[in-house]
Amino acid sequence: MNPGSNSKVVDHPSAQGAASEVLVIEPRSFEEAVEIVEHLRGRKSVLINLHMLDNEQSQRVVDFLSGACHAIDGHQQRIGDGVFLFAPASVVITSESNSTRAIKDVFWNKS
User: Fold this and answer.
1) Whole-angstrom distance, CA of residue 95 vs CA of residue 76
2) Contact, 94 vs 67, CB < 8 A?
């Protein structure tokens, strides 16, 4: 590459040697939400299982993490009942709904 060229080379995240990491956390109190935000800021994805919390605490944790995730341009996805995935901006969450899956099954299983 010429020193005077206008091309910009950006390292691919996997080329930097840092492996992606997903933490699975079952918080037992709202106070653990602050630690979860620190993981997100450290570019780690976090899968949280809220089954150890009552409904009010679960809602507080999800609201707090949703705000933090938005502040760092991250992403979130409800995975199931009381289970959520929060990811930093460097991670894209792709979800396939049941209706989309059913349409694909019908299309691909034609005889």
Assistant:
1) 11
2) no
| Residuewise pLDDT in 10s, the chain (111 residues) | 455 545 555 555 554 445 678 999 999 999 999 999 999 999 999 999 999 999 999 999 999 999 999 999 999 999 889 999 999 998 888 877 666 666 666 666 655
Give the type of residue at 79.
I
2 within some domain: no
Q: Residues 34-38: contacts with CB within 8 Å, 24+ apart?
A: 36/65, 36/86, 37/64, 37/65, 37/68
The count of structural domains within the chain is 1
Which residue segment(s) compose the domain that 57 sits in? Answer: 20-111
pTM: 0.69
CATH of the domain at 78: 3.30.110.150
